Amino acid sequence: MMETLARAIEVTRRYGSVTALDGVSLDIRRGELVGLLGPNGAGKSTLINLFAGLRRPHSGRVELFGGSPADPVRRRDIGVTPQETGLPSTLRVREVVDFVTAHYPRGAARGELLERFGLTGMERRQIGGLSGGQKRRLAVALAFAGNPRLVFLDEPTTGLDVEARRALWDAVRDFHAGGGTVVLTSHYLEEVEALAERVVVVDRGRVLADDTVAAVRDIAGMRHVTLTAGELPDLPGVVRAERDGSRVLLLTADADALVRALVRADVPFTGLEIRPTSLEEAFLTITAHEPQAA
Ligand SMILES: Nc1ncnc2c1ncn2[C@@H]1O[C@H](COP(=O)(O)OP(=O)(O)OP(=O)(O)O)[C@@H](O)[C@H]1O
User: Fold this and answer.
1) CA of 45 relative to ligand 1 center, distance in Å
2) Is 135 in the same domain as 236?
3) Would you say residue 245 lies in a domain?
4) Does residue 293 form part of some domain?
5) Atom of ligand 1 nearest to the CA of 40
6) Which UniProt keywords apply (predicted)?
7) Do 175 and 228 fall into the same domain?
8) Are 158 and 79 found together in one domain?
9) Per the CB 3.0–4.6 Å rule, which of 12, 84, 138, 218 could disulfide with 59?
């Protein structure tokens, strides 16, 4: 059994009347590269802030390396890149890196760290003079300044162009290949797909799915097929079927095959519509209902 580095057990966290996390349980094991996927306001940043010891849960428990995230000794072995890049604009790149690195017993070598994130030659530049993408890369690089065992990257590639995004993906992959554990958040399945093996889908403070990227991709690729028809025969690949008067809604991973089967079965239908499901819709539908016949 792989060692668990971070763990949330039935965690609830509110902000005023907003429940940001609602009974979330999650284990992050050593060597994993986990993507937290979910729409705006899903609770991803809140979860990272709890693991990083920046916030405390209202109920449930959060553990980091088997202890409390509030313990500074445990926090030495993590790195975090927050969603907002707030670095002092008058300082030079070199000064910021040295300042952050100095906080750790095993700080990274500056030159090597900057190289990994495509910032070589920028040591003397002031933060305020960097481009948005360069600032972002620096903020992500700082998460690795202490040679952490576990890093939390909150939307690491926001604001990066394609090339910079790929370079950052490579840096994250290198860290992972060297035995590092990564938790990253994203709104985009493609980003999670490019990096992660395991994806945890979060929405409205709850974990909707915790599975392989392939399994989640299948669910996310579901289509809603709706049509007006009478009694329907058994159709292939229907995950869920629902009737509302004469309107039938079918959920399937392969809409083309479904439509071909409908035509072959020679059942009269009108008003055929096919549309993608949102990730949320797909997961809610699948987790809330068992397949049933129309
Ligand atoms: N400091 C705060 N004060 C009040 N409400 C907050 C605070 N932080 C988060 N929230 C609320 O908690 C919920 C979860 O927010 P959170 O930032 O964790 O989501 P997220 O998944 O990271 O979203 P995004 O992708 O937009 O960053 C949202 O409804 C948000 O408005």
Assistant:
1) 7
2) no
3) yes
4) no
5) 26
6) Antibiotic resistance, ATP-binding, Nucleotide-binding, Transport
7) no
8) yes
9) 12
Residues with CB under 6 A from ligand 1: 15, 18, 20, 38, 40-46, 83, 187
Taking only the tens place, the pLDDT of each residue in 208-257 is 889 998 888 777 778 889 999 999 998 988 988 999 999 999 989 899 99
| Count: domains in the chain | 2
Shortest-distance Cα residue to atom 2 of ligand 1: 15
> For residue 40, what pLDDT is reported?
85
Q: Domain range holding 110?
A: 4-218
* Whether residue 166 sits in one domain with residue 117: yes
pLDDT for the residue numbered 285: 62
Same domain? For 55 and 126 the reply is: yes
Per-residue pLDDT, 193: 85
Ligand 1 center from residue 124 Cα (angstroms): 35
Look at residue 288 in the predicted model and tell me its pLDDT.
53
Using the atom order of ligand 1, give the atom closest to the CA of residue 45.
22
Nearest residue (CA) to ligand 1, atom 23: 41
Q: Which ranges of the chain have pLDDT less than 70?
A: 1, 278-294
